[in-house]
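2024-03-11 09:14:02 INFO worker-7 job=invfold-0412 stage=load source=structure_tokens
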């Protein structure tokens, strides 16, 4: 009877061990399935992220192009085709002394005007020349000169790029 009890005890231990082993295997299978599911989800997330990143980059590039086109409609941007070109304007004054106050006032006024670039003054044998870069043209610039200074000169000729003046002895 002791042997039967021992056999039953061994069989019971074997059955319990077998059941426990099957439970462990089931847990391992569930864990493996969960890990596989997490890996699949992770791969899907990575693919979605890559696709989203590519879409965002494409959208940003398209938006930049659209903004450039819209900006050009409103005059912004560096490549505006209808922008007035800045032109070289030459103002020549005949029969004037180099140290004439009206010449100095004219040069100082022109030099300070908005849009005037690269002003320079030259003098040779009674003739002074003021050269500038200006997009509005010679007439627009001459019209902004104060009347007191303008009255010191007689206008001889004028076109878009040049003004020929003669110093008047009676300013």
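2024-03-11 09:14:09 INFO worker-7 stage=emit residues=171
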């Amino acid at each position: 009877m002791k042997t039967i009890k021992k056999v039953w005890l061994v069989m019971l231990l074997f059955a319990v061990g077998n059941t426990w082993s099957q439970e462990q295997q089931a847990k391992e299978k569930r864990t493996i399935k969960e890990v596989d599911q997490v890996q699949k989800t992770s791969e899907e997330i990575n693919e979605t992220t890559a696709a989203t990143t590519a879409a965002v980059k494409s959208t940003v590039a398209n938006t930049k192009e659209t903004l450039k086109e819209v900006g050009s409609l409103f005059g912004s941007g560096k490549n505006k085709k209808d922008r007035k070109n800045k032109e070289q304007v030459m103002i020549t004054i005949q029969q004037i002394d180099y140290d004439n106050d009206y010449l100095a006032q004219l040069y100082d006024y022109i030099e300070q005007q908005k849009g005037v670039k690269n002003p320079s003054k030259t003098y040779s044998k009674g003739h002074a020349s003021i050269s500038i870069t200006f997009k509005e043209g010679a007439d627009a610039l001459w019209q902004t000169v104060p009347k007191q200074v303008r009255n010191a000169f007689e206008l001889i000729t004028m076109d878009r790029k040049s003004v020929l003046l003669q110093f008047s002895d009676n300013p």
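2024-03-11 09:14:09 INFO worker-7 stage=report msg="The beta strands are 87-94, 117-124, 127-134, 153-158, 162-167."
2024-03-11 09:14:10 INFO worker-7 job finished
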